[in-house]
Design a protein that fits this description.
By secondary structure, the protein is mainly alpha-helical. The protein contains eight helices and two strands; from the N terminus they run αααβαβαααα. The chain has a two-stranded antiparallel sheet with strand order 1-2.
Length: about 160
């Protein structure tokens, strides 16, 4: 069973934030309900891709105020629930979590800057274009200013 980044964000959004293991378990539960293979580790690539594309963002434990790092819906996501996901709140023993968006935004801002530097060093125009799109979403999501970074990325694409 495959899930889109927006569906992963929707599952996470049900609880506010989930650890990687909790998200894998939730996805396994949904797969099981559909009669599909349901090993939580089967979703590693989808989760990694969702993080890479900013559908999910990782917030470290100290920033999130949790015992373990958590994933929260990111600026690139339009969270939607996959089939049967509404039942997860009743099936899984996971308490709702709230992660402060401004605090999470600062962590994501650092990651964005690192990703932008790597894309520029790698001379990867596809990734630079993706990051330009994310920059607008991130500004709205976390109330940060990425105008300087966006101008730099845009200049790189022009040359």
């Amino acid at each position: 069973m495959e899930f889109s980044g927006d569906e992963l964000a929707g599952v996470v959004d049900l609880f506010g934030a989930l650890t990687r293991a909790e998200l894998g378990g939730a996805l396994a539960e949904l797969a099981y309900k559909q009669g599909e293979p349901y090993d939580p580790e089967e979703f590693t690539t989808e989760i990694r891709t969702a993080v890479e594309r900013y559908h999910l963002v990782r917030v470290d434990a100290a920033t999130a105020g949790t015992d373990d790092p958590v994933l929260v819906p990111g600026p690139g996501a339009f969270p939607v629930l996959p089939a049967n996901a509404g039942d997860l709140e009743h099936i899984l023993d996971i308490a709702d979590r709230a992660v402060d968006r401004a605090t999470a935004g600062e962590a994501v801002l650092d990651r964005f800057r690192r990703d932008a530097a790597v894309a520029v060093q790698s001379d990867d125009p596809t990734r630079i274009e993706q990051l330009l799109d994310v920059s607008y979403e991130l500004e709205a999501w976390a109330d940060v200013d990425l105008s300087a970074e966006r101008a730099h990325l845009d200049d790189i694409l022009r040359y």
